[in-house]
Amino acid sequence: MTDFTTLIQPDRGQDATPIHLVNADVFADWAKTLSGGQRAALKAQKFDGGGYQVGIVPDGDTWFAVGGVANPEKLSSLCLARLAEVLPQGTYRLANAEPGPALHGWLTAQYRFERYKKDEKAQGPRVLVTGQVKAIEPAVAEASAVALVADMVNTPAEDMGPAAIEAEAETIAKRHGATFTVTKGDTLEQEYPMVHAVGRAAARSHAPRMIRMEWGNEKHPRIAIVGKGVAFDSGGLDIKTAAGMLLMKKDMGGAAHALALAGLVMGAKLPVRLHVLVPAVENAISGNSFRPGDVLKSRKGLTVEIGNTDAEGRLVLGDALTRASEDAPEFIVDFATLTGAARVALGPEYPALMTRRDETAQELIAAGKAHDDEAWRMPLPEAYREWLNSDIADMNNTHTTGFAGASVAGLFLDRFVAEGIDWAHFDTFAWRPVAKPGRPKGGAAYGLRAAFHMLKARYGKA
């Protein structure tokens, strides 16, 4: 993982290149304070204060940088990202502000995934000094959580199978002193039958499992985080096309989000009793694959007719959500790369958010807007619940209308969350198809920071 710990340092008066922040509204007046040669240098670089613009200004024997931001007086979490991407290696200091939330983009802009190939052209490191010493550790923690999601999603399925997901979870559990358990084999089949059914066709090295960790004082409010850990999704016997399989290494993105969020919660020592559940499987094809038309038993006791083996994520989540509900938490949040329908509706940038309670949706959306990690709420319509009816089982795992796919998947999950529990579901893409400042192409966290800051706001003062 990219080491962010050295990229922000306390300001002790060390030598640092100044960075001036302006926008298009104030640039002309600010430029009047410069010499004619300096203004000419910026003009040659076509710098006019626009967002994410970067200029280099000569200043005697040295130089300073200038960056275009939306509002120099109220920095956002990503407004320094372009500067951190393109400035030369060195140490920097904001000349007319403290970075505040913009520390996040300064760090994430310097993320690199180099497990298989080193970027020989990469600049760096760029170090930012700040007087906001107490903000450094939380900023590093959040950027590291985002990087964990990216690293896990970027890693191919051969190296990020169920066993590797387990290893990542165990590392996090040990770091924070959480209890850690894994259920596999015959016990998995008995206790989590849908998880076992989905994953049983995989090679022994990628055998299915339920990964769990618990942490915190039992007297504190109990919450659960659940993540879909489908290490690779062939579609099963309802096999995907070659193009459809190309990015399926990212189908464990929900698990990556869940583990990253758990690390943030434990690292911040939020006063909660935390339960983390990750059903980790590979939806493979072999002679013992589960089939269209099969009826699976679930941990909850509901029977599920299989309308499509490519709707496997909701099956493994069903057993996990059932187990989470058994401890009567006051809040459950799950993350899953669940439906193509959510992407058709919202594109890659916005995770689809579904909640039982309006106030929970409002809290998550507000936290996301405040931290450049906005979700978009989608409904759980009672009118569509009947679309999951089955003639021979309690329910089907798919519907045949082709409409409202994301919401119908959410309604499936809702059946496995006990009544009365506050529950939120993020249907996330976990992948960024085009790079943006501070947000590289590839594995990406959507909804992670929104959920963390919502939990901080709700439970941080408990």
Automatic annotation (TrEMBL):
<dbReference type="InterPro" id="IPR000819">
    <property type="entry name" value="Peptidase_M17_C"/>
</dbReference>
<dbReference type="InterPro" id="IPR048816">
    <property type="entry name" value="Peptidase_M17_N_1"/>
</dbReference>
<dbReference type="Pfam" id="PF00883">
    <property type="entry name" value="Peptidase_M17"/>
</dbReference>
<keyword id="KW-0645">Protease</keyword>
<dbReference type="InterPro" id="IPR011356">
    <property type="entry name" value="Leucine_aapep/pepB"/>
</dbReference>
<keyword id="KW-0378">Hydrolase</keyword>
<comment type="similarity">
    <text>Belongs to the peptidase M17 family.</text>
</comment>
<protein>
    <submittedName>
        <fullName>Leucyl aminopeptidase family protein</fullName>
    </submittedName>
</protein>
<dbReference type="InterPro" id="IPR043472">
    <property type="entry name" value="Macro_dom-like"/>
</dbReference>
<keyword id="KW-0464">Manganese</keyword>
<dbReference type="Pfam" id="PF21337">
    <property type="entry name" value="Peptidase_M17_N_1"/>
</dbReference>
<dbReference type="GO" id="GO:0004177">
    <property type="term" value="F:aminopeptidase activity"/>
</dbReference>
<feature type="domain" description="Cytosol aminopeptidase">
    <location>
        <begin position="308"/>
        <end position="315"/>
    </location>
</feature>
<keyword id="KW-0031">Aminopeptidase</keyword>
